[in-house]
Amino acid sequence: MLSRREILQVGCSSFFGLGLSGVLQQQLKAATDSATPPAKSVVLIYLGGGGSHLDMFDPKPLASETKGEFSPIPTAIPGFQFTDRMPHLAQHADLLTIVRSMSHKDNRHLSGTHHALTGAIQPFRGNSNQDKSLNRADWPSYGSALSYLDPRTDQLPSQVTLPNDLIEGVLVWPGQHAGFLGPKYDPFILKDDPNSADYKVRGLALHDGLNIERLNDRKQLLLDMDRQQRAINESSQGKQYSLQQEMAFSMLTSPTLKDTLDVYAEPDEVRDRYGRHLYGQTLLLARRLVEIEMPVIQCNMGRTQTWDTHVDHFPRLKNMLPPLDQGVSAFLVDLKERGLLDQTLVICVGEFGRTPTISPLPTHNIPGRHHWAPAYSALFAGAGVQGGQVIGETDKIGAYPITPPYSPSDMGATIYTALGVDPHQMIPDRLGRPRPLNDGKVMDVLYTGAES
Question: Could you say which DSSP state residue 428 is in?
Fold first, then answer.
């Protein structure tokens, strides 16, 4: 018997001429080709700006021009090392797969981020950062695509992004919304620091003096006005706006999401275990979202500081790596102890890594590491991923993979497959043209433990 998601896929596929038999053939092929177990949630811990693989998961202690200031330490995976700034994750490496051979060809933040957060290469619109900023022509984020293909019946979003979106000056980094699918499928973005003393879920809070009864009165007034307007002009834009209003009202009046994002509901000892900092408390909220089976949870690790360490590289990492190490390890252990790790795919990655060389920018005298997409590392755990393994290898200075590389498109195919979505199915773009959702290959090596 077909599930609701499969029936939806049949309807979409029929629009593009595939039909029921084609869908069943796709399902059979997907089941044969992929060993990916299903996940109820995917948690993407995103190191916006590009975390240094060489200073976390792929140290090169024998390369004098590369190794930097941190020392290697043993991990729970025999024969493999992390740096001394990652002691908690090294201790719990038996829960992890580290892929050291992530690679692509784009050293730019914005388009590289689009690739990481959507699993697709950003359509070309020009070479400037403004050209690459968030745009409705972009591909949808993972949760947005899922929301389009399998809409929720409870009016909650399929993706929550926290604690903030990725913005640099006036530039909003792409890949953070539903792109050409439209705003109806956009994620909910928290935009609040859960470690701050005045934390509250402002995006879901009612304005002072406005209670649920008054909100419902306003909703009825808007509905009356909408009906009158639709009688005059039945536009698709008006319909879309009404759908967005309905979702906003549902989120405001439903306690589910707001209660889940209440970090104060956690005991002090649990909050302390994650760490009283932005990273730790964000990941604690992620665990609470996993408990309500939120399909996609994106945790942006960085607000005032990004991982773009061109300048003052090592002093900045000395501040940033310890809370990341504490928060991610506490998150993984907590999921395991609560029986949630097997149903949650956890990924920690940035848009690229950092250069093997340590050098100053032309405009600064303080050395740092710079953008490097040819080789970087990603952490995977949970949802059937075999723990205690390292996949892939880079050369002696960590510059290039010397084993088969994996791209952000492959990571995207893996995410979609874990969520029960055929990554290669067709979706309509803004002009209604059929486009493949993803062109990557599922990283079955995470589950089989053998290089392809």
Answer: E
- How many residues are there in the chain? 452
Contacts 24+ apart (CB under 8 A), 66-73: 66/356, 66/357, 66/358, 66/397, 66/398, 68/313, 68/314, 68/358, 68/369, 69/314, 70/314, 70/317
The whole-angstrom separation of Cα 56 and Cα 228 is: 59
User: Which residues, at least 6 apart from 125, have a Cβ–Cβ distance to it below 8 Å?
Assistant: 131, 132, 135, 137
CA angle 384, 385, 390 (to 5 degrees): 160
The domains of the chain are located at 1-33, 40-198+261-448, 205-252
Q: What is the pLDDT of residues 309-327, one digit of tens each?
A: 999 999 999 999 999 999 9
Classified as helix, coil or strand, 14 is helix
Cα 118 to Cα 55: distance, rounded to the nearest angstrom: 26
Please, is 246 exposed, middle or buried when counting C-beta atoms within 10 Å of its C-beta (0-12, 13-18, 19+)? middle
Does residue 209 sit in helix, strand or coil? coil
271-295 pLDDT, tens digit per residue, is 999 999 999 999 999 999 999 999 9
Q: Tokens 């952490």 sit at which residue?
A: 379
Q: CB–CB of 288/282 below 8 Å?
A: no
Tokens 């059979």, located at residue: 28
Each residue of 414-435: b (16+ CB within 10 Å) or e?
bbbbbbbbbbbbbbeeeeeeee
Are 142 and 408 in contact by the 8 Å Cβ rule? The answer is no
Take residue 120 and report the two structure tokens written for it. 């697709």
pTM: 0.86
Distances (CA, A) of 212 to 88, 166, 199, 200, 250: 45, 32, 22, 18, 11
HEC profile for 217-272?
Answer: HHHHHHHHHHHHHHHHCCCHHHHHHHHHHHHHHHHHHCHHHHHHCCHHHCCHHHHH
Residues pairing with 372 in the sheet:
353
Judge whether residue 202 has pLDDT over 90.
no
Domain 40-198+261-448, CATH homologous superfamily name and number = Alkaline Phosphatase, subunit A (3.40.720.10)
